[in-house]
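Q: What changes when zinc ion is included in the input?
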Amino acid sequence: MVEVTVSTYGDLHRVFLQGMMSRGIAGGKDIKELFQTAYEQSQGPELDFENKDIYVKALVDTIKTINKELDSLGMAIVKAIDEDYAMRGQHTYYVLVNRDDHDVGEKLAFKAMPDFAPFELEYTRHLVDHIMDEEERQIEAISALHLAKLVKAKKMKQSEGEATLDKLVAKKWLKRNEDGNGFIRLAPRFIAEMGDFLDRRYRIEKCYMCPGARGSGKRVIRPVVCSDCGQHYHRYCIKSDACPNKKCRGKVQDGAGRKRRHARSDSEEEDSN
Ligand SMILES: [Zn+2]
Ligand SMILES: [Zn+2]
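A: The predicted holo structure follows.
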């Protein structure tokens, strides 16, 4: 039975987890291929991968089973939706995250990025600081490259900044927005993995529509905001530009008028490398 195959830890889960470990993040076609390959290798009973409800249920149940195993390691596979889109479907990802946050110092948080040298991590911290200081939470590529000169761990050339930036985008920690103006933003992988770090270091809004939220819900990095009641929302949580807060008749808009307060502590500035 499919139920047994997905809910009893076995080959399916091992192969799928290995795939997630090498990718870090997967969504859409990529995760379907990974899951289908792992499923077929496990020689489970036939599963109709073209039936979305059946496929997604099997995928979610498989991830639940893996997460039970990963729990003792302080790790989990979590869902992350790209905040830049109004539609969830194609923009939903799964991210393998380290939840071990009993001592989330800044350095420790960035240890989740093992492919990066210390100077690259320092550069990344500057990038993230500058992205988070901007009202729209994005910076131009050219400004991103200028930040290389702030790095203290070594004299970082602009070309090394460029290479690091490319690597951060390739590994899906950061993204360039798609309409061609090249703004650099935090990608779903960064937001999922570094959530605790973001909460500690910056002033982060919560989406008023996310389940169980009402002000204490899921963080939103690039919200749309209601000009009347001031509530923040994920683009994918609202259906139109009418504010979904029942007590309000306002309209939501793209972060405009949002006050971005500088919310990071300066002590961490000293913390180079
Ligand atoms: Zn939301
Ligand atoms: Zn409102």
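Observations recorded in class: The first helix runs from residue 2 to 7.
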